[in-house]
Structures are given as structure tokens and as C-alpha cells.
Design a protein that fits this description.
heterodimer; A: 292 residues; alpha/beta; Pyruvate Kinase, Chain: A, domain 1; B: 132 residues; alpha+beta; 8 strands
Chain lengths: 292, 132
């Protein structure tokens, strides 16, 4: 049975925890709004880019001259997994669910006899993956100093990936991130970026073939494919940003509510034991008086 | 009044413009071009330079680099890796970009040396054209 003093301390500490989680929740809510706006602002670019790329790649895919970024190296022996997570924890299952997806993917590939290389973006993913897949870990991109995710950051990650590709370090690259659906739901996603797989959105297919290209298709494609990698990474980073804040918001909301419940329970216990102490004292006094 | 078409300028971070214009002057890799309504469908890559959109309400100028322009019957969309209104570009930013282009040129392999040299030259030219 904890003493009255202990209980009082407990209540105080839970109260201050609640204050912290409450504050974190509000900060996350504000950041979420900004992250969502950023994700929405980036969407038109990504959509248009993909539409044009789909059209371009469809027309060049069959030919021998197709760039390697599109046609691949011909093999699929070595896989690069780019795992994008958050820099911070306390956001529910956000980091773990991305890492879990990456982990299932990696172990499946290893079981198939493929070589796996892992590049992590964000501290949390590195920490979690280093334990089991430390040998496969080939690099890490640190974004902890980044306040506002910009295209430049995506660009530098893309450059890193592209350099590795140029040097023949891998055949297939995939990115792992979390798609933002709502504050409560975020879906961990895997997306192949090299060789590029653009989903054709075949709405205006009829006019596709009438386009003129300047310079020619091949050159445009060679120019745009590396940008496509950056665009996809950027879109994923933005989705991730929104997901992280969303996940943190709901996790902190739960924590706040939980702390409230705990305070209630502890207060009842505190009152009860205080009452018990008083009753005890009275019994002692009364039985002392009766004995006389 | 001249025919107008829809013009869109988007960068990865935001949509800069979505307006009705009479003509758009685009800094294409192989030279400047002006697109007007009912232009032949065309896709061109961009070089660093100044994009001029002339609308019924006035002329807007933007600095753009890296990306492409898509001209179709529906209108013109320009997807630039970096785009901002001309007035917002600072000399520092430009010098930074030129420096980057220069260092890319120094590191370029024989294969893409030409492209890197062109980028650096275009960048300096754009800097001159901005008149900072």
C-alpha cells in the first residue's frame, strides 16, 4: 500500500505528463496543418510530371535506346531499399510500421537469394533497422536539422541514389514511406523508383502521339528521369511529414486521455486511503476512551 | 481581343500561377519560344531563364530553371524544378546557383560535360538578363 505522500507525488507527476502530451498534441496539430498544405501544394507538380513521364516512357519503352533508369540494368539481383522514417519518436506506430514493412520486404528478398542494401532517411528507421540488418545498411541521410522539407532535400537524396545507381551498386530501388490518409490512418507504402515505373493515367491517350518533342524524346527522357526520381522522393517525404504529424497527434491525444483516466483513478485511491487513515485514528481514540 | 489559353506554372513546392494568358514566352533548351492559343502540342525541356506570361491583365515574369513545358490544346503548363517571380530573385540566390552549376561542371564526366557547360553558361546568362 503506497503512502499518502507517494500517491500525491504520483498524481503530480501524471499531471505534468498530461500537460506535456497535451502541448505536444497541439504542436503536432499545427504542424500537421502545415505539412498537409505542403503535401497538397506539391501534388499538381507530381501528377503532371507523372502523366508526361508515363506518356514518354510508353513510347520509348520498347526500343533498345531506352535509358537505363527506365529499362533497368537487366538484372534484379541487388535491391536498394530506401527507408524513410521520422527523426523523432513519440508518434505511435508510425516509424515501426514503415520499418516493419521494410523488414518483411528485406527478409523476403534475402530468402530469395537476392542482395539487399538499405539506405535510411530519418534517425528512427536507422536505429530500428541497424539491429537486425546492420550488415546491409549502406548509408544514412540525416534530416534532423531540417525544419521545413524542401525540394532540395529530396534532390540530395535522389542524387545519392542516382550516384549509387551509376556506379552499379544496385539494380532495383524502392522507397518505403507512409501515405497520409487521415489523422487516424496512415498506410505504409512501398514504391519502386528505379527502374522507373510510371503509372499511366490513360485519359487523354488519344492526343498523346501528336506531341512534338524538343529536343527529341530520348533526350527529354534522359533529362527528366533523374528529376522524376527526385519528384517521387519529394512527394514521399511530404506524405511522410503529414503522416508523422498525424500519427503523433493521435498518439498524444490518446496519451492525454490516458493520463486523465489515471489521474482520476489515483485521486480516488488517494482519497480512499486518506479516509482510511482518518477512520483508523478515530478508532484508536474511541477504543482508547472506551478502555478507560 | 486575342484568344487566351490556360497557363500554369508549378514547382514541386507550390503552384505559382494558374491564369488566362495571351502568350507565354518559354526559355526552351533549344531556344526561346512563344506559345499562343492553339499552338501545336509540344513538350520541351527548359534552360535557366526568364519566362514571360502575357495576360489580358498585364505581364508576369518568372525565373525558372530545370524542368519542362507542355503545350497542348488545353493550354500550357510549365513544370519547373525551381520557379519564382522575377522580382523575388535575389543576387545571392543567383550567385549560389551559378556556383553550383560551375562546380557541377568541374566534376562532370566527359559524357555529360557539354550539358553541364551549357547549364553553367545559361545560368550566367539568366543572371545577366535578370539585371541584378
Amino acid at each position: 500500500m503506497p503512502s499518502l505522500k507517494d500517491l500525491k507525488n504520483r498524481i503530480e507527476s501524471v499531471k505534468s505528463t498530461r500537460k506535456i502530451t497535451k502541448a505536444m498534441q497541439m504542436v503536432a496539430a499545427a504542424k500537421l496543418r502545415r505539412a498537409q498544405e505542403a503535401a497538397e501544394a506539391g501534388r499538381p507538380y507530381a501528377e503532371r510530371f507523372n502523366a508526361v513521364m508515363a506518356r514518354l516512357s510508353a513510347s520509348t519503352k520498347g526500343s533498345d535506346t531506352a535509358p537505363r533508369l527506365l529499362s533497368g540494368t537487366g538484372g534484379d539481383q541487388t535491391h536498394l531499399l530506401v527507408v524513410m522514417t521520422a527523426e523523432r519518436g513519440l508518434c505511435g506506430g508510425f516509424n515501426s510500421s514503415i520499418v516493419k514493412l521494410a523488414r518483411t520486404h528485406a527478409s523476403k528478398l534475402i530468402a530469395e537469394g537476392k542482395t539487399v542494401k538499405i539506405l535510411t532517411v530519418g534517425k528512427k528507421g536507422r536505429e530500428q533497422l541497424r539491429r537486425d540488418y546492420g550488415d546491409y545498411h549502406v548509408g544514412h541521410v540525416d534530416l534532423s536539422h531540417v525544419k521545413r522539407m524542401g525540394y532540395d532535400h529530396a534532390r540530395s537524396i535522389a542524387d545519392d541514389v542516382l550516384n549509387r545507381f551509376e556506379e552499379g551498386e544496385f539494380d532495383v530501388a524502392k522507397i518505403f514511406y507512409s501515405e497520409f490518409e487521415s489523422v487516424i490512418t496512415q498506410h505504409p507504402q512501398v514504391q519502386q523508383i528505379i527502374p522507373a515505373a510510371f503509372e499511366a493515367d490513360e485519359e487523354d491517350d488519344s492526343e498523346a502521339s501528336f506531341y512534338d518533342y524538343e529536343p527529341d524524346e530520348g533526350e527529354i527522357l534522359a533529362d527528366l528521369l533523374p528529376r522524376g526520381v527526385a519528384t517521387q522522393i519529394f512527394a514521399a517525404l511530404l506524405e511522410n511529414g503529414a503522416s508523422e504529424q498525424g500519427a503523433r497527434m493521435s498518439a498524444m491525444d490518446n496519451a492525454t486521455r490516458n493520463a486523465g483516466d489515471m489521474i482520476e483513478k489515483l485521486t480516488i485511491e488517494f482519497n480512499r486511503s486518506r479516509q482510511a487513515v482518518i477512520t483508523n485514528e478515530l478508532i484508536e481514540i474511541i477504543s482508547g476512551a472506551e478502555a478507560l | 481581343m486575342a484568344d487566351t489559353m490556360q497557363f500554369e506554372l508549378v514547382s514541386p513546392e507550390r503552384r505559382l500561377a494558374s491564369i488566362e494568358v495571351i502568350s507565354v514566352q518559354i526559355p526552351g533548351t533549344e531556344g526561346d519560344m512563344t506559345a499562343m492559343a492553339d499552338h501545336m502540342p509540344l513538350i520541351t525541356t527548359l534552360r535557366p531563364g526568364i519566362l514571360v506570361a502575357e495576360g489580358p491583365a498585364g505581364t508576369e515574369e518568372y525565373f525558372v530553371t530545370g524542368g519542362f513545358a507542355e503545350i497542348s490544346a488545353k493550354g500550357t503548363s510549365v513544370l519547373a524544378e525551381m520557379a519564382m517571380p522575377k522580382a523575388e530573385v535575389t543576387a545571392e540566390q543567383m550567385q549560389d546557383l551559378i556556383e553550383k552549376a560551375q562546380s557541377a561542371l568541374e566534376q562532370a564526366t566527359a559524357e555529360n560535360k557539354d550539358a553541364a557547360a551549357k547549364l553553367a553558361a545559361d545560368m550566367s546568362e539568366a543572371y545577366g538578363a535578370l539585371g541584378l
